[in-house]
Amino acid sequence: MKRKGLGSKIFTYVVMAFVLFISLYPILWVFISSFKETPGGLGLPKEWVFDGYITIFTKLNIGQYFLNSIIITVVSTAISVIIVAMSAYVSARLEFKGKGLVTAMFATTLFIPSISISFPIYRLLGDLNLKDTRIGVIFIYSGLGIAVTYFIIRSYFLSIPKEMEEAARMDGCGYTGTFFRIIVPIARPGLATAAIMVFLNNWNEFYFASLLLKSKEKMTIPALLGQFTTAYSKNLNGMFSAIIVAVVPTIIIFCLLSETFVKSLTAGAVKG
Fold it and tell me: Which of 56, 82, 206, 242 can pair with 222 through a Cys bridge, CB separation 3.0 to 4.6 Å?
């Protein structure tokens, strides 16, 4: 029995190490290559080259792209989580006709590819005079990935005992007051998890950013990386440096909030 337990642990650690290696290898390769004159391999560079970082911060003004990404991502994440949270609360607590249809409509958005809705979105923003604007991209990003956000938040709401809301209503608190004063504070881990997922998705989104934004002063970092494959394809140091600058914020956010993320998913799965 002890040998079986030891063998199981060894196998688990080997698999974890293999998965960790596969996950970290591309990032480490790009990070080390960004300091090499000739990119390639995981070996440390013989001579550290900083030309790529100097180029993106001076000639390409990546700070402006970075600021655009932060503004668009933060605002769209806040709008998306707030709207979806209200919808998920109604679905989790109230009974009404068409409730199953609403849930099914959220689920069907998981199977619709972005490219299939690109023309209607492009036409809509054109009619609203929102093409090539940050507001237009925020408007689109607020609706991306709402199905996953909806089911995560709804699952967490279902895990909250109804008795807490009933006690609040007995004290004279209405639906709105109960939602913001009781439910939101309790469901903070679930909302944080949904916000992390929306933030990461919107931060890394490339297709609509490159489709809707044409002015360089309004582009996001993913749209900038798309340009490296054309105009700056020979500047590998610059491209790898820009990738590292784009990836670092997402890694920091996930590392800081990973415990909350895992606890929320576990709580929703167990209680829901």
Answer: 206
Angle at 186 between CA 182 and CA 191, to 5 degrees: 115
Q: Mean of the pLDDT values across residues 167-180?
A: 81
Please check whether residue 77 is in contact with residue 199, taking contact to mean a CB–CB distance below 8 angstroms: yes
Closest to 210 (Cα-Cα) out of 112, 111, 142, 140: 140
Where does 50-271 sit in CATH, by number? 1.10.3720.10
Residue-range domain boundaries for the chain: 1-49, 50-271
Q: What are phi and psi of 232, to 5 degrees?
A: -115, 30
Q: 174: alpha, beta or left, given left = phi > 0 and alpha = psi -120 to 50?
A: beta
Q: Which tens digits make up the pLDDT trace of 35-59?
A: 887 776 667 777 888 887 887 788 7
94 touches 163 (CB < 8 A): no
